[in-house]
Amino acid sequence: MQRIKFPTELELERLPADGGEHWNRLVFEQSPYLLQHAANPVDWYPWGEEAFARARLENKPIFLSIGYATCHWCHVMERESFEDNEVAALLNRDFIAIKVDREERPDIDQLYMAACQLMSGSGGWPLTCFLTPQTEVFLAATYFPKRGRQGRPGMMQLLPNVAAAWQSQADDLRKTAAEIIQHLQARNQPADGGLLADKIDYKALELLESSFDHDNGGFGKAPKFPSPHQYLFLLRHWYKTGEQHTLDMVIRSLKAMRLGGLFDQVGFGFHRYSTDIHWLLPHFEKMLYDQALLLMAYSETYAATQDEFFKQTAEEIIKYLSTRMQSSEGGFFSAEDADSEGVEGKFYVWSAEELTDVLDKQELDWFSKNFNIHKGGNFKDEASGQPSGANIPFLSSLPLVQAEQSEQELEQWQRLWQPIREKLFQNREQRIHPLLDDKILTDWNGLMIAALARASLLLDNARCLEMAESAFSFIQKKLSTDDGHLLKRYRKGNAGLPAHLDDYAFMSWAAFELHQATLKIDYLELGIGWTHASLEMFYDQEGGGFYFTEASTELAIRSKDAYDGAIPSGNAVMARNLAHLFQLTGEQKWQEYFDSLVAAFAPQVNRYPPGHSFLLLALELMHGENQNLVFSGSEINAEILAPVKGRYLPNSMFLGLTVENQSEIHKIAPFTSSFQVGERSLHLCRDFSCELPIQGSLKIQARLKNLE
Prior knowledge:
Number of helices: 25
Strand order of the largest sheet: 1-3-2-4-5
Number of strands: 20
CATH architecture of the largest domain: Alpha/alpha barrel
Distance between the termini: 51 Å
Low-confidence stretches: none
Shape: globular
Number of domains: 4
CATH class of the largest domain: Mainly Alpha
CATH topology of the largest domain: Glycosyltransferase
Structural class: alpha+beta
Oligomer: single chain
Largest sheet: 5 strands, mixed
């Protein structure tokens, strides 16, 4: 993808509303994805009334293209079609063309992706839709080449056909569009609420086991996704039941992913997914949400197993986040592209010749032996099936095993590897980097803050906590309004766009995790406030659960779903938040909202439990063997949480009680009202009934040991 030199702010002010001779209307937008298309010859509009009004005035159908900045096939379609003058001429003559960044406007994406899946049985990005001037969809698909090939029509054929159909059959197309909306509205209404099947967690486990790849780890066949929330569910099931095979699935998968090409062995961080079953050849983009969920999975697995390999991997993710993904202002960027210089993965792979220029012979021999480097390359080109000539560094076995095979200690192996890795990293830094999608999204930042806050306890890592608090402060300062509401996106000093359920759900979760990691009551109060806001803005008073958008939405349908995609659903995270608040406060309303939410989605969960694994986590938090650990003392500091650091206590809630905060804590958690604040002590409570306080670090450690 070609890098574009954009106008300065002063030059932008001088441009006409349509962008002028060299630009289109997208040049005035903030989204990196929309800006990628700002120099296209297509007369693009951003989503909005200006485009809709022109479509109605000229009675033209809308050509809607939805994608995101790091989408490989979006880049391909741009090169083939949107940069092409012939395609642009057809679009500009017969359609009103609109571009949408799905990460900025997930509400729009959800609606039209659902239509695409309904019409074609599949979906993906780029998403290509044809709409009436009233924005009702009558045709939807994904990628189209410029000219047809392999049975797929091309844009040069498709666009004239759709334009002709609109001229001669507009009423039929409007009728089709109305029927699609009716289908989506009917499908969006969950079945009458019900009860979850008995032992729904075991049903989920059974289905996960049936798709588990015992040889390579992970689930299903290629392409294989990390799916970290599945491992979080499995960890809790193991914690509850002690069933070792459940933990073994987690260990096998997380080790395989870390050893393979899915993990960037040189620069750290995980790529999006593997195109093969062995975790070797990835799709190379790096997403913030994957790093967050995988950080959570690796840090929790470390706490559960005390295996240093998982701790090291978690710390490598943190290092990647610190060096590449956290802005100087504190917020986290969204993603790094798969492509550089128009080639997917070019930044990350190595030819034998390149390595010879970087490493001396001894280093190259060691690196080649340990990381599977071959002169002809170590993977095949997907299109031709021939050796690619390039290498993706990966490990065939754990570093400990590699060291033993070389008759070395692990520390010696690591001492050999670190200077080689540093040489490779510094050399790679001189290459043209993939695009950094530098917009800062509230929901993804909430997810990352929650992961870092939790990891700070599980890894006993102060840097994690600093990063989490810095990002949280950024959201408060830059993406919150004066009345406490959230905004969606920030980029280069500009904050805007309406927030959705996920923004409030994930930021509430982030606040609760920061409260757990610091015992600072301000975080707890903010999380409660955002939970109340979610109930006011998104809650379905009649059917239970939460809509994705507010009632005032401009879209025809308010979606409501609990299915986990690449990240947990907003409803599942809200269920987790409600369970957390009930267990922490005992306030009955939180359980009532929780029960109503679960009932609303019970038929959906019963059909396919693994697709709702995060909601199952919330169920365990609500109904499992949980406990509140109330630490009291003269002050709240880092030492007071020392007894729980590094321990796997997934269903434990923490409170800190001091003279200064006791009145606020007593209001939030009335079961603490009889506690005396004095010498440092621990109150352990179950079902809001508490044991006698335990004093002395050794006694506290011994009592907590019994909880693991």
